Amino acid sequence: MTKVCEDCVVRDRSLCGTLDDAALTEMSRLGRRRKLAAGESLQFEGDDNILCANVLGGVLKLSSLTPSGDAQTVGLLYPADFIGRPYADTVDHDITALTEAEVCIFARAPFERMMAENIQLERQLLERTLSELERSRRWLLFLGRKSASARLAGLIIDIDRRMAQTGCGADLGIGQLIQLPLTRTEMADVLGLTIETVSREIGKLKDAGVIATEGRRGLRILKPAALKAIMDSE
Amino acid sequence: MTKVCEDCVVRDRSLCGTLDDAALTEMSRLGRRRKLAAGESLQFEGDDNILCANVLGGVLKLSSLTPSGDAQTVGLLYPADFIGRPYADTVDHDITALTEAEVCIFARAPFERMMAENIQLERQLLERTLSELERSRRWLLFLGRKSASARLAGLIIDIDRRMAQTGCGADLGIGQLIQLPLTRTEMADVLGLTIETVSREIGKLKDAGVIATEGRRGLRILKPAALKAIMDSE
DNA sequence: CGGCTACTTGAAGGGGTTCAAGCACTGTGG
DNA sequence: CCACAGTGCTTGAACCCCTTCAAGTAGCCG
User: Fold this and answer.
1) What range(s) does the HTH crp-type domain occupy (chains A, B) (predicted)?
2) For burial by CB atoms within 10 Å, which of A7, A197, B200, B222 has the most?
3) Which ranges of chain B have pLDDT less than 70?
4) How confident is the model at residue A6 (pLDDT cuts 50, 70, 90)?
5) Which of B138, B41, B129, B136 is CA-nearest to residue B93?
6) B76: closest CA among B51, B102, B92, B95?
């Protein structure tokens, strides 16, 4: 018999990583893999909250729409990240795949049962949620106080770090090619800017030799220190 | 013998609310009350993370300083709110009393022990953290996409709601006098604006008859629906 | 190649900041 | 009780960063 979740690429980095074999077997019975095309949504704001999931591959976004129609992305989800909000009745944000993606879905009720029975699962989720809260608060500082160039630099650095962590081909090394998981529009939605401003700021970073671009999605960080300095500036 | 934590004003609304008498007795041995003067800080960003606490009274802020020196408030803490980040080594934000305040402090290590032994405590904290994450993400949308007037309206409505919940004298009724826990400068730090803009926007709301002010801290909401409409606008 | 979408670039306009006074609460001492 | 700081708040005017509106260009797929 093949070992449970044996082929799961995020098995030891995801929420499930702490489970023993018995619990993992149970989880594997509850989980169901689903592939998402780029642009496809897993759920919409206001939906009944019926699912939790682990991200297996790809990048997704958490976003809200203002009444007047423009979007704000409030979080990005990478492989091994957890999706969902246990104990809530409705869903607070849209979740949409930015790239082709794959998730491992659990119905919320049985997932909550598993959490009750495996307290290390709850503990793990608590730690992750606290981290996520911290991430979100750091973005608050960016959106509240920083200029367009500092925000962009921050996003690029964040993407680079997350891509490196999740082994998506990027690396902290200078000049490594990163495939951006976001279009310019999607970057603007994260940064609270317009697509034109994002484009212009990328242009400035290129002119300054801080980054280089390759096609629409390709990006190289040529001067990490300079990029970090821009992020830390106003 | 007097009952444990009997005189605690937030006993049933705080994290401790779910504990049975035995656990509460244990908690009461670990907790230590401390009063804070307005402006006094409980901890600073970068400090060793040694404490958790419940807010008993007053209002506190969570804030960060940008390298260039101006502040961004990333969260407000009201009575019954929880302070601290279990499992982390260092502290991510300054915590400062905005008004005279009182907190019930626990050393982090024994608090974590209590969480391990009383899983409903961990569960409670998880739910609170998930809510707080949600609050923080909603603010992201405000800072990313909304105008100064919408942000201010949002803050006033939030304060009104929180003050009503915590029984600090406010009420959702029209014309009730609210004592703002923040100065204009502190409001600006929450909203990602300057003090001048905050002042001007308050002036506009007054001119429109949406609110009335009384001294520096006093505020009445005269047209809640109009205020809400402004919050929901761009 | 043609067509589509994503992206870039330009110019004008506006919301918020910045800089600079002036005003009004609040407490303190005479 | 009133003068008088002192701090917090308001108001005004110029400026600037980002947006808005409008073309124009480049990557990509049939």
Assistant:
1) 146-225
2) A197
3) 1-3, 167-172
4) confident
5) B41
6) B95
Give B5's strand partners: none
Query: What backbone torsions phi and psi does residue A78 show, to the nearest 5 degrees?
Result: -110, 170
Q: Give the predicted TM-score (pTM) of the model.
A: 0.95
Give the C-alpha separation, B222 to B205, whole Å. 10
Q: What is the pLDDT of residue B42?
A: 97
Distance CA A232, CA B207 (A): 39
Q: Is the CB of A195 under 7 A from strand C?
A: yes
Q: Residue A69 above 70 pLDDT? A: yes
Contacts of B144 in chain A (CB under 8 A): 72, 143, 191-192
Cα B133 from chain centre:
13
Cβ contact (<8 Å) for A123 and B122? yes
Instruction: Give every CB contact of residue B76 below 8 A, 6+ residues apart in sequence.
Output: B59, B60, B61, B62, B98, B158, B159, B162, B181, B190
Spell out which residues of chain B touch residue A140, defining contact as CB-CB under 8 Å.
Answer: 72, 74, 136, 139-140, 143
Domains located in chain B, CATH noted: 15-139 (2.60.120.10), 146-232 (1.10.10.10)
Average pLDDT, chain A: 94
